[in-house]
Fold these 3 entries.
Entry 1:
Amino acid sequence: MDEKRWQGLRESGSRIFFVGLFSLIIAFLIFSRFTVPSQEPLAVEAQQLRNLAYAVLAITAASMASMTYGAYTIFRAEQMRAAGNNNLISFITGAFANRSYWKIMAIAAIGYGIFFSFLSQILVYRADVSFTEEGLEVPSIDMIPCCGAPGYMPMLTVYVTDHFLILLIPVNVILASVVSTLVGFNLALNIFAYRLKKSLQAKMSITAGIGATSGLFVGCPTCAGSLFSALIGVGVAGAGTSASVLAPFQTLFIAASIPALVAAPFLLARSIRSISNCKLT
């Protein structure tokens, strides 16, 4: 193992990740300074505010791409460092030495992301509502630049068809992306453990079984955001206002699932290690 190589790779990934993270935070804070509710008029004109809102969304997308690439680079560094070791990180990263598990992760993350987006009302299909009858042009884009807490504005609504829209709240989209990626990661690791167990005809403990399946379901509490919307009743005309009220609750449910998704691979890695040790003995 080339120590300088993996250290350089990890430092590079960390820089890329934190540049994206800090850019995102700064963009949210600066934008909120222009849109915080107050008795004084807004510091910028409406058109300028809309242009700034689109810029913030572009920065959000670029920052997410930067953080994703940074995290991937750090993972590769840890994969190099942990090769041949017997710690949990080595069993987590070692599974992805086979490219097929990256493909499984990507497919699972995209599939879960679509499923989750409908439940959390990022993607909204209303067969009982006609947007054109509500006086909206389809297709069209509606930007709501003001006003809310950092990360909740700007809010972008894309009316795709007469019954289908996309509601983009930056913080919720970021957290939904993180949850979907972690679910895909957990599923790929579960499949790796299952194949390893099957090849060795080993028996997994109850604890290991919980760790092996927890990654598939811990995102479910985030679906409660759609329950709030269903109970209160989100109409087309009031979608922006209602979403602003519900957004903090929805974000809370999304964020609450992340620690469980992060912990699940370590529980599963313990079972993979015990299976591997049985193979050696």
Entry 2:
Amino acid sequence: MRSKRNRHLTSGKHIRSVVRGIGSYLPANKVSNADLEKMVDTTDDWIVQRTGIRNRHIAAEGETTSMLATYAARAALDNAGLNASDIDLVVVGTATPDYTFPSVATQVQASIGMTHGAAFDVQAVCSGFVFALATADKFLLSGSHKRALVIGAETFSRLLDWKDRTTCVLFGDGAGAVVLEAQEGQGTIRDRGVLTTHLRSDGRHREKLYVDGGPSSTGTVGHLRMSGREVFRHAVSMVTDVMTDAFAATGTSAEDLDWFVPHQANRRIIDASAEKLHIAPSKIVVTVEDHGNTSAASIPLALATAVADGRIKPGQLVMIEAMGGGFTWGSALIRW
């Protein structure tokens, strides 16, 4: 017998948020582990063994999060064959906005020449893109909006303490974007589009991953602080929990996945999560080696890479997941 939770997927017409286009942007400045060896007491071997990271991209002076987001947004629009006038919603996941306000999303809106609709940011740190995608999906399913730009964009280099070798080697800058379009489906898991999203948070874990500054506390930007072992300990169980929920909601399993596109934080976390759910290594998209952890940008950057090289194809089943400071975590199952 099908669960009540599953019935909307099995009969009648149903609106889906379909991925119409995708785009990405990485700053030109590429920083290798060898470059970092000259800045802090670390080695390429140490970084690679613990994280899998070899390179990351760092925004140039004056290159802001909204600029990165705009480049990715324009690429996604071009890929979709659409113009700014075709979009009526912009949702940006970011923890590194240009300003306390206005939002990055409204700056992107202005930059692409969009003068209608709504634009706002979502702050869930590394889970930001998943939260932004889930938010835009709800708007499209409600019928209030037709097409959305969903963007993950970060300049995490601006939050780093470049004397802290345990954190400064982990992060990079970048942006990725997708265009979602409301389309009518049959209400089954064969429909293209976002099939289900699952979001969680638990504020009790703040001190395990946070920034020690802010306008209301210190009046400064602050630096990222992290208890790496504690984050690793929680990450695998948390992200596999929301992935299991996605499988249960759609009547699917890990075997049904064509691609697993996780948040690119740490290769060991990625591998441990996949192993726990019995996802074959051949189905995992990994870009952490060349991008580092780009927080909310990491999933759309990885998606854009796998679409560009031909791995992800229309009709395939794709699982995305992330965990970020707060803690926040979430998943989305998408028929590409």
Entry 3:
Amino acid sequence: MKPILLFDFDSTITNVEALDLLGEQLAANGRLTAHDVAQIKHITDQGMAGEIGFGQSLEKRLDILKLQVVDLQDLIATLHHRVSESIDRNKTWFLSHSDRIWIVSSGFKEFIAPVVHRLGIEPDRILANEFVWDSRGIGHVAKASPLAHDQGKPKVVAAANFTQPVWIIGDGYTDYEIKLHGAADKFLAFTENVRRPGVADVADHVLLNLEELIELDRNA
């Protein structure tokens, strides 16, 4: 039985962390400082390496960003051009296997869905956070979402009740946690964009690019 292929989004489907990119864009517009951008990236790295809880990492970054609805349009436009090279050159493979490809991310569906649509991945196959907007028009994570909290990914994957084997493909410790907590059968560290030593060390396979996953999947 062929596995369900669960892809992380940031630094896997794309070659950038979306909230880091957003910070750079807001700095270019004068709404953030260079110090703010550096702080956001540092917090991202701490969360992805498992040095702080992901819920804490997400909340800290959103507090700095003070995201507005209008900011999403520019972010999405840029993310379309930041799809990882090996994924971009294998779009036809995604389209032909879209019936068993899902996205699981602690990022936000509002910017993930438009980017993965051209890979044949529909919104009902995206497990991700969603924004809520306060009276000032500032975006916050919906607190009810398990993905807004530590170990959220294992919980939402387990709740999906997949009947096939599950492989998780990602670059961060939160992706490995899906296997660690029994919701996936294999963790494949995707290192085309970033290699995190503590993450690669616990992977069943370390992937340099998508072609290596395609070969593993072909032989599964």
